[in-house]
Amino acid sequence: MIPSPWQTRLQQQAERRQSLGRNRDIRPPAGVDLCSNDYLGLRRDPRLAEAAAEAARAHGAGAGAARLLRGTCPLHEDLEADLAAWKGTEACLLFNTGFQANATLIPALVGRGDGVFSDALNHASIVDGCRMAKAGGAHVGIFRHLDLGDLASQLAAWRAGAPPQAQALVATDAVFSMDGDAADLPALLEVCDRHDALLLIDEAHTTGLLGADGAGLAQAQGLHGRIPLVMGTLGKALGSFGAFVCCDRLLRDHLLNTARGFIFSTALPPPVLGAALEGIRLARAEPWRRQRALALAGRLRAALGQPGQPSAIVPVFVGADADAVRLAALLQDEGFDVRAVRPPTVPEGSARLRITTGAHLEEGQIEALIQALGRLLDH
Ligand code: PMP
Fold this sequence. Notes:
Elements: H1 4-19, E1 32-33, H2 46-59, H3 67-71, H4 74-87, E2 91-95, H5 98-109, E3 115-119, H6 124-135, E4 139-143, H7 148-161, E5 168-173, H8 185-194, E6 197-202, H9 217-220, E7 229-233, E8 243-247, H10 249-258, H11 260-263, H12 270-285, H13 288-303, E9 313-319, H14 321-333, E10 336-337, E11 339-341, E12 351-356, H15 363-377
Parallel strand pairs: 1-10, 3-4, 3-5, 5-6, 6-7
Antiparallel strand pairs: 2-8, 7-8, 9-12, 11-12
Helix pairs in contact: 2-12, 4-12, 5-6, 13-15
Keywords: Biotin biosynthesis, Pyridoxal phosphate, Transferase
Enzyme class: transferase
Pfam family, one: Aminotran_1_2
C-alpha cells in the first residue's frame, strides 16, 4: 500500500501533468515507422536474430555478472575490437546503455575544481552526467547551442579562476536528437585544443549513418580517430542494444576503473552482443541502407523548406503542445506512426513532431507523408 500522504502527492502531480497536457503515455507501435531510431532497418533483420540466437547458444542468455567479475565473454572483446577498428581508435569500452555511459563517464572524469562544458541541447544523459559532476564539486558551463564563441569565452573565464591542476571536458551530441542538426567538430576540436579541454562527442544518431564507412560524424567531417572520446549506442542504427566509448587505452583503463555505470552493472548479454556484431557488419557492408535513410530525410526536409542536415531526424516545428499532439494524432489516423515531442524534452514553446527516416521505408511512403503534412499544416 502506498502511504496516503504519498498517494495524495502523486495524484496531485498526475493531475497537474494532465491539466498542462504534458502527461506522457506509452503508445504501442502502429502504422508506418516514422519515429524509431532504427535508421538502417536492421532491428528486424533475420540475420541479426540468427546471430543473437547463435550467441545465446554458445555463451548463454545472460552475462551472469558485471564485466569485472565473471560477466565477460569473448563476444564483449570481439565487439570492442570491432568498434575500435571501425571508429579508428586504440580501444573501446562497452556500457549497458547510452544513458548509463554519459551519466557515469562524465563524473568519472570531471571532479572537484574541474569544469565540464555542455551544449544547451545535449541529450538528457549528458545533462545528468554534468549534474553528477556538479555534485562532485565541478563547475558546469552550459554554452548556447552550437555557439563556439560562447564556449571559448566560458572556457577562458573558467580557466582564469581555476586551480592549475583543474581539467576541462567539453561534451556535445554529434547530431542533436530532437533537432537533427550537427555539431561542427573541426571547429569544436580546435577550441578544445586551444584550451587543453578533452572533447566527448555522442555519436548515438550518427553511428552507422554518416561517413564513408558509416563510422559517424567524425569520419564524415575528416576527424576519424582524432576525437579523444567517442560515445555511441548500439540500439539505434545498429539494431541491437547497448553503448560504447571509443578512446585510447589510458582513457579506457580510467573508465573501467572509475565509471560506476560500468563497474556496478551486469554486463551486456551475449544475444545483444551477437546482434550488435552482425549489425556493424551489415552497416558497413550495405551502404545503400544509410544512403536511403539520408536521401529520404533530405527529400522530406526539402519539401518542408528546411536546410539540409547530415541526419535522418527531421523536426516539424509546431510550437504549442496541444497543436503538436493533435497533428501527430491526425497523421496516426492516416497510418503514419509520427510522435509529438513536448517540453521538457524540448524547450518551452517548441513542441514538434520528430520524424525519422530509415532504410525500411519506400519513397512512396515519404511522398504520401509529405502530401498529408501539406494538407494538415495548411489548416
Ligand atoms: N545519447 C543520445 C544523443 C540519445 O539520443 C540517446 C537515446 N535516446 C542516448 C544517448 C541514450 O542511449 P540509450 O538509449 O542506449 O540509453
